[in-house]
Amino acid sequence: MFVRKFLPARVTGAVLLAGATRQLAQAGIPDPGRDARRLLAHVLGVAPGRLSLCLQDPVTPEDEAAFSDLIARRALHAPVSHLTGRRAFYGRDFQVTPDVLDPRPETETLVAQALSAPFDRVLDLGTGSGCLLFTLLAERGSATGIGTDLSEAALRVAGRNGDALGLMARAALRRGDWFGALGSLSGRFDLIVSNPPYIAATEMPGLAPDVRDHEPRMALTDEGDGLSAYRAIAAGAARHLVPGGRLLVEIGPTQGAAVAALFAQAGLDEIAVIPDLDGRDRVVAARLQAV
Questions:
Q1: Contact 151, 216 (CB under 8 A)
Q2: Strands annotated E in 27-149
Q3: 97-152, pLDDT tens digit by residue?
């Protein structure tokens, strides 16, 4: 007797997405539907904006298992960027790992301010993923730059991003603490930028677990009052800027007055506190007086 064998029906993307959204919501993830869609698009190899076109298609068992693993990890608050290995910043994709700070949209405020005036040579202190350095070099085709970081692992990530963007011919990466990484290198910069660790040690327990438990602690806090990096940057800025050169740093939303005062004490001029798109203080800008 002939017996017809039926293969089990494969689940569709829509079914997986609905279940994953419920799982993330139960885990307290703030925007579960968004994250589930981004992770499913990553597994299926499609752009997030085109995911709806293939939600009714069956998903292979391999993709279903991979998606289930990512959702389980996201439910434990692993950042989406760590799960996909990528984060968009200023129109470009950057590789991201647990060794570097996750590039954030508010940091684009600093980029926009940097691009508001010409520059030829830029120094990025605490470069991390390299998102500031390589975005600025990509936007200014004749500029050169140096990125410094205390973390060798972070510099490896930055190097891979520089290679992927084809920018390493105009960039150098050096390991060390702030200006100390420059060693005996000569020359000054007409632009210095930094997104340093500015979270006070007492504020760390209140951070979202996605940040507190998964991003490098040394990129988040100075283990003090959150101002140590600005003191070091202010102390060395005048020695490394050309006359008329600019200094731009990202800050926490309550630090504008304190960082502006440090820059004033260091002899810098034209100090301004610049808000982000949400109206929160985000960048302090200053200039070394031209001779």
A1: yes
A2: 86-89, 92-95, 121-125, 144-149
A3: 999 999 999 999 999 999 999 999 999 999 999 999 999 999 999 999 999 999 99
- Given a contact cutoff of 8 angstroms between Cβ atoms, the answer to whether 255 and 198 are in contact is yes
pTM here is 0.89
CA 83 – CA 248 distance, rounded (Å): 31
CA pair distance 12, 56, nearest whole angstrom: 5
Looking at residue 10, what DSSP letter applies? Answer: P
220 and 116 within one domain: yes
Domain that holds residue 100: 90-287
- The 3-class secondary structure across 13-50, one letter per residue, is HHHHHHHHHHHHHHCCCCCHHHHHHHHHHHHHCCCHHH
Q: What is the CATH number of the domain that holds 26?
A: 1.10.8
